[in-house]
Amino acid sequence: MTASERIDQMIEDLTDWRGKTLASLRKSILAADPGIIEEWKWMGSPVWSRDGIIAVGNAHKGKVKLTFMYGAQLPDPDKLFNTGFEGNVRRAIDLFEGDKINAPALKALIRAAIELNQAKSKKTVKKPAKKAAGAGAAAKKKPCAANEG
Q1: CA distance 26 to 80
Q2: What's the predicted TM-score (pTM) here?
């Protein structure tokens, strides 16, 4: 079973408002960028990625949580994040029964997360450090304390 099929099954198994809410979030996430891929991680969590993890979705007993991996670094002018402020990395959106998500604002947040992932991946691609000319020879010429005297 593919990750997308597992997410389909999870949504289908959530027969209450949480399934509809998760399906709505998923639709907005996937519409934000055609390069987003769906993954299934951590023994049952839908994950959306592009050049790194964007967000993880979970249905809890009384809420649906969408956690952004690097949410603390994202602009959130529409104030979608409503939890996770105590940490320095992640931010989340908790949705409760009857809550509506601002789809255009969510798509903007998703696109910002993708841009951040792409910027991070460019920074981590580093060229090997060049050896300083003659560094090895200089080390050999350095007098040893045992030879002094």
Answers
A1: 16
A2: 0.80
Instruction: Write down the number of H helices and E strands in the chain.
Output: 4, 5
CB atoms within 10 A of CB 35: 9
| Per-residue model confidence as pLDDT tens digits over 1-54 | 999 999 999 999 999 999 999 999 999 999 999 999 999 998 889 999 999 999
- Order of strands across the sheet with 53-59? 37-41, 45-49, 53-59, 64-68, 91-95
Output phi, psi for 118, to 5 deg. -65, -40
CA angle 55, 56, 57 (to 5 degrees): 120
Structure tokens at 59: 């249905």
Q: What is the C-alpha separation between 79 and 83, in angstroms, rounded?
A: 11
Instruction: Answer for the pair 125, 70: CB distance below 8 angstroms, yes or no.
Output: no
Asked if residue 47 lies in contact with residue 37, where contact means CB atoms within 8 angstroms, the answer is no
3-state secondary structure of 58: strand
